[in-house]
Amino acid sequence: MDNKNYYVSIASLFSALGGLLFGYDTGVISGAILFIRKDFSLNDNEIELVISAVLLGCVLGSPLAGALADKFGRRKLLLFAAALFTVASLLTALAPSALWLGIGRVFIGFAIGFSSIITPLYIAEIAPPSIRGRLVTLNQLAITVGIVVSYLVGYLYSSSGNWSMMLGLAAVPSIIFGVGMWYLPESPRWLYNHGKKEEALIILTKVHGEKTAKEEIQEIEMSIEESKTKKPWQMTPWLKRALMIGICLAVFQQLTGINTVIYYAPMIFEFAGYNTPSVAILATGIIGIVNVLATIVSLWLIDKVGRRKLLLTGLFGMILSLLSLGFSFHYMEMTSHLGWLTLISLMVYVASFAISLGPVFWLLVSEIYPTSIRGKAMSIATFFNWASNLLVALTFLTLINYLGRPGTFWFYAAIGVVAWVFSYFLVPETKNKTLEQIEKG
Ligand code: BGC
After folding, report:
1. N or C: less crowded end of the chain, CB within 10 Å?
2. Is the CB of 30 within 6 Å of ligand 1?
3. Do 250 and 385 contact (CB within 8 A), yes or no?
4. Whole-prediction pTM value?
């Protein structure tokens, strides 16, 4: 790796700590809740509230993030998110009551809502086109690592039941995230858009070399000149299509059920006959590791084979594995020996998600919008992502009651089919193009 790529990779790694916290803070509650429930004597509704508090914060925080990042800059907002992560993690660790804990978790949700938008956006804006996919996917990799680490921490503290430690440990990466962002530069595209041309050129030269930096500055300038002839939100055919792609992929990413697995995996394994908690936890760990490994594969492939091929192939795998997951539960009613099929289906499902809808959604929404409205447009898509996440989390158990276990997973498979057809006809290839070329449509 030459020096320029080294610099931009370090910048991406530090900002991806926002992704690590996203994964850790959404995953940690599944282990911690067992002990929180006992300490505060929570009933089922209160448990649901504590669990959903983070998602509620994300839903409330994500609409604000983009507008603030367009106004104040990407770096400042990431610094703010890091501070919020730190304070809210400590607040929840010290919570003397369930109400305090719930409120603290809403603030953590705010920080996740912010970083889930600004981290991929910041990386996309500093990355050279040839490795942009890989660098933005580092954020998704960090999310999956955060989830596995949260399972591991939950497991390590399960004998002592120390949920304060489980929640409070998030302060450590939060502080490193903040210190890292303090030393990282602002996004050159944001700077240029705000009249700070010299600074933008200096940063671009540092990350892409002198020759490429000059070419990119010219492209950025042309795209800004062009955008002056239109209103920022003028609904050109491309912007309409890009908004539809962002919103629909956001919804598909969640309504195909990924977080039923991430949040409820031990329970799904119990359905499949893995009745001892330690076996269910082990199986959950395996799923988490498959998620990380498959994300590494996508990191390696995304700039080579492109976004579209990965998306379509992975979606196909998700549909097949959801169907077979449904079958495993369907036939389980007749024979109890299908636990292995459940485990394999879940592994294929998570791996397929990790090479497609997982990274490709976050990457595309950081690439397809014009710089002048990128933050706000990403906010819209991300808001839909968190709102559908909340919807799935709140309806999974009810769906199982109405449709049965097989029916629920077949329902997610049917949504997968719609997502495949949508992607086939509407999702563009953005590999190797500059952000300015992509915004021309
Ligand atoms: C999704 C999360 C999900 C995670 C799992 C992300 O891309 O947005 O909702 O929990 O992937 O790896």
Report:
1. N
2. no
3. yes
4. 0.92
Tokens of 302: 């995304």
Mark 337-376 as b/e (b = at least 16 C-beta within 10 Å): ebbebbbebbbbbbbbbbbbbbbbbbbbbbbbbbbbbbbb
- Pocket test residue of 262, 349, 388 for ligand 1, highest count of atoms within 8 A of CB: 262
The DSSP call for residue 269 is H
Average pLDDT (166-189) is: 96
Judge contact between 353 and 297, C-beta under 8 A. no
The reply to whether ligand 1 has any atom less than 6 angstroms from the CB of 389 is: yes
Query: CA 120, CA 170: separation in Å to the nearest integer?
Result: 20
What gap in Å lies between CA 197 and CA 193, rounded to an integer? 8
- Residue with the larger pLDDT of the pair 371 and 124: 124
More confident residue, 323 or 440: 323
Tell me the per-residue pLDDT of 69-112, one tens digit each, with 9 for 90 and over: 999 999 999 999 999 999 999 999 999 999 999 999 999 999 99
CA atoms of 321 and 316, how far apart (whole Å): 9
Strands (E), 220-311: none
Identify whether the C-beta of residue 307 lies closer than 8 Å to the C-beta of residue 427.
yes
Asked if pLDDT for residue 431 goes beyond 60, the answer is: yes
